[in-house]
Amino acid sequence: MVEFAYDREVRPAASHRLFNISDGDTPTILQPVRMVSIDTPEKSHYAGKAETAQPKLDRCRQLLLDGVYAAIPDDLRDYLVDRLDPEAAARHIDAGEQATIQFDLLLRERLTRADGSQRTVATVPTGEVIDRYGRMLAYLAPWFTGSKSDPLPPRDDPRRRTLNLDMIAGGWAASFLIYPSLPHDADLNLLLDDARTAWRQRRGAWKKHGRKLLLGYEYRLAIKLGTEKPPAKAMADAFQRVCVDLRSGRSVGLFGWSKVPPPERLWFWVDDTAKATVDLGLDPA
User: Fold this and answer.
1) Which of 223, 231, 267, 268 has the fewest C-beta atoms lying within 10 Å of its C-beta?
2) What is the separation of C-alpha 76 from the centre of its chain, rounded to a whole number of angstroms?
3) What are residue 221's phi and psi, to 5 degrees?
4) Segment 108-161, tens digit of pLDDT
5) CB half-sphere exposure, 267, CA atoms < 13 A
6) What angle do CA 121, 124, 127 make, to 5 degrees?
């Protein structure tokens, strides 16, 4: 029996459609991509249509007011309660539908050549590469062949911008930086500049729905807290990431993110705390 004393990283199986095979060890599959560093509002597939999702948010609000989740500090509780009004689900799902429409328009615009032909999409995997749901973690951009007729534009040319970045700039996606899947520093700061501008100018979804719009991960958190699960289990499901305030470079823990403007939030998984503390230069205290 052969044994090796190191931990393997094996992810759960995921279902993908098989297109074809090119040889004995190279199948082609339909691979879903999760665009990294951004997060759009959820549509009805996540927690149901508004009439189904709203009772879950109402339950979350009541549990927060009743003090069931005692570990959640007052400022975060107040932040969530303020946004969990009777229109919270409808507002969020509408923002998710609008984000999908805007992304489709963006794809049509960015992938159509001057002659009307369609570009393919460049995928740039990063960080973990495949997440726990079997999705590739990547940045997407128009693909340039590099030929004389289709040269790759200079690095600072707007045509080189990722679709991830454009969704943030338009206000249809919030920045959602999760270590270790972070862009290089130059690209990171470009993303942050666009995220700050979209937030400050209330573009896209914020223009339509205002400050009470729950971000995608905030909505998912509230849905988890509004389930019928025991409070300890609901808390464990809802709070799995630690937030870093990019303005100070300090961790605000599991519960301090409501005091940090959305463009200034960076996250890492609790299990990554030791390595993230070193790689991000955080105070270990």
Assistant:
1) 231
2) 20
3) -60, -45
4) 999 999 899 999 999 999 888 888 888 999 999 999 999 998 999 998 899 999
5) 21
6) 150
| Residue type (1 letter), 64 | L
Closest CA to 252 of 237, 267, 262: 267
Using CA atoms, how far apart are residues 178 and 281, in angstroms rounded to an integer? 15
pLDDT in tens, 33-61: 999 999 999 999 999 999 999 999 999 99
> Which residue in this structure is represented by tokens 């454009």?
166
- Which pair of structure tokens corresponds to residue 109? 């615009």
List the one residue out of 269, 261, 263, 257 whose CA is nearest residue 181: 269
Cβ pair 163, 143 in contact under 8 A:
no
Q: What is the pTM of this model?
A: 0.92
Tell me whether the omega of the peptide bond preceding residue 86 falls within 30 degrees of 0, making it cis.
Answer: no
Beta partners for residue 174, in sequence order:
39
Question: Rounded to whole angstroms, how far apart are CA atoms 175 and 247?
Answer: 15
Residues 6+ positions from 233 with CB-CB distance below 8 Å: none
Backbone angles phi, psi at 271, to 5 degrees: -65, -20
Q: Please tell me whether the peptide bond between 180 and the residue prior to it is cis, using omega within 30 degrees of 0.
A: yes
Please name the amino acid found at residue 143. W
Beta-strand relationship, 136-142 and 33-35:
parallel
Q: Where are the alpha helices (H) located in 156-226, listed in sequence order? A: 163-169, 185-200, 204-209, 216-225
* Geometric angle at alpha carbon 255, from 176 and 210, rounded to 5°: 55
CB 64 within 8 A of CB 72: yes
User: Which token pair is 279?
Assistant: 């790689």
DSSP state of 152: P
